[in-house]
Specification:
This protein is an alpha/beta fold and 415 residues long. The protein has 12 helices and 14 strands. Helix content is 34%, strand content 18%.
């Protein structure tokens, strides 16, 4: 296995810019000027255009951010020392995508809508960044704080994504109708083939069709049937966490109303997170992403201290800046992922070069050691023999369900 030290990753894990194939993808959605690009910059520490005007982002930004979990090294006498572990706080890389803002009518091509929505097709989960302060209208133009209802931005993003997917279904429905004339036609397979590009699997389609009431003959499907199909598929393949951004200036009742309007809500201040990460880079503050507080450790001007204390007040109210929490909620809660650590030496928890816990893989809950083997490399999976739980030093069955933080030795005949 390739360690992070060998892979050419920069020493500072939060400046990593390489997106690896197969990396789990998180996309930022929202109307213009809601703070998506600031969120992206704070979460990746990459240079992007940030401006107080619509469509600041035209070309999509694609970079690497991290989800945070507890490293298994906390169960040992010494920390692992991996560059993605900070005293037991383990940061696991994910792709973060920031594209142009949506405006009403985006699914019909208004604004940069089609470009935006097409870029979303590869995402596993969506963070809908909402201006919780209500300080931008539906088009993303600045207004007075509280003038716009942010709950409308939750509904409109979902509606635009649903109608976009429905338009894809409509454009391709003629081929479904033609295929239905064949005696071996299978609607599950046909729809799965059509929707592969937006991340749908045959299992997703099968589950959706079990939920819907639809004609057996595709030629009898109406627009309502196709829209119902699109909505359910979107919910399965592009689930959404709402990020109530600008929580530092938002009326608290806005946050609570947003909480009532969605299943997953995270209050956040992307500006605050960016200030803390810049402060940490400059040696002014001691702060790791996701910490509920920070410490001023360097020279700071009076103005900087006042700004930092304002950020601290928001963190005390919401348990942090919300940026890391939003990413963690999307991956570990909404997608129900877990982190597993493959090793070659089960007693020392090292790879072949002696690096302790050098690799961490995000897997769907319910995954097995075989799934982990394939996540490491297809050859390892194809030649899988058995696995050992490094924590207990016991062999585990092939259908053993992994748990968060498992350390597993994969035994394979692959060279």
């Amino acid at each position: 296995m390739l360690s992070t030290a060998e892979s050419g990753v920069t020493e500072n894990p939060f400046l990593r810019s390489r997106v690896d194939p197969g990396m789990l993808s998180v996309a930022l959605a929202g109307k213009p000027n809601a703070g998506k690009s600031t969120f992206y910059q704070a979460a990746t520490m990459a240079d992007v255009d940030v401006g107080n005007y619509p469509f600041t982002t035209v070309d999509p930004n694609r970079g690497v951010s991290y989800v945070r979990t507890e490293c298994p090294c906390l169960e040992r006498d010494e920390r692992c020392g991996d560059e993605h572990c900070r005293d037991g706080k383990r940061y696991v890389p994910v792709e973060l995508l920031d594209v142009a803002g949506l405006v009403p009518g985006a699914h019909e091509g208004r604004g940069l809508g089609n470009q935006f929505l097409d870029e979303l097709s590869t995402a596993d989960v969506i963070l809908n960044v909402v201006d919780a302060a209500g300080a931008t209208d539906a088009e993303g133009e600045p207004v007075e704080v509280g003038e716009h209802d942010p709950v409308e931005d939750v509904d409109f993003i979902e509606e635009e994504m649903d109608l976009w997917l429905a338009s894809i279904v409509d454009r391709n429905w003629e081929s479904i109708e033609r295929g239905s004339r064949s005696p071996d036609f299978d609607i599950d397979e046909a729809l799965a083939e059509m929707l592969t590009g937006v991340g749908a699997t045959e299992l997703d389609v099968a589950r959706t069709l079990r939920e819907l009431d639809y004609p057996e003959d595709p030629q009898q499907w109406t627009d309502e049937h196709r829209e119902a199909l699109a909505r359910d598929i979107r919910q399965r393949t592009k689930p959404i966490v709402v990020v109530a951004n600008k929580a530092d200036i938002a009326p608290e009742e806005n946050i609570e109303r947003l909480r009532e309007a969605t299943d997953y809500l995270v209050p956040a201040t992307a500006d605050g997170e960016l200030a803390l990460r810049n402060g940490a880079e400059a040696g002014i503050v001691d702060y790791d992403p996701g910490d509920p507080d920070f410490e001023i450790v360097g020279d700071a001007s009076d103005a900087q201290r006042q700004g930092l204390e304002r950020i601290r007040e928001v963190m005390e109210q919401w348990g942090g800046t919300g940026v890391q929490t939003a990413l963690d909620t999307a991956v570990y809660d909404l997608l129900d992922m877990l982190t597993a650590y493959p090793v070659q030496n089960e007693s020392k928890w090292t790879d072949g070069q002696g690096n302790v816990l050098p690799d961490a893989h995000l897997l769907k809950r319910g995954s097995t050691p075989t799934d982990l083997a394939y996540a490491v490399h297809s050859d390892i999976g194809d030649n899988y023999l058995h696995a050992v739980d490094a924590k207990s030093d016991m062999r585990v069955s092939d259908d053993h369900e992994l748990e968060e933080g498992d350390v597993i030795k994969i035994v394979s005949s692959a060279k």
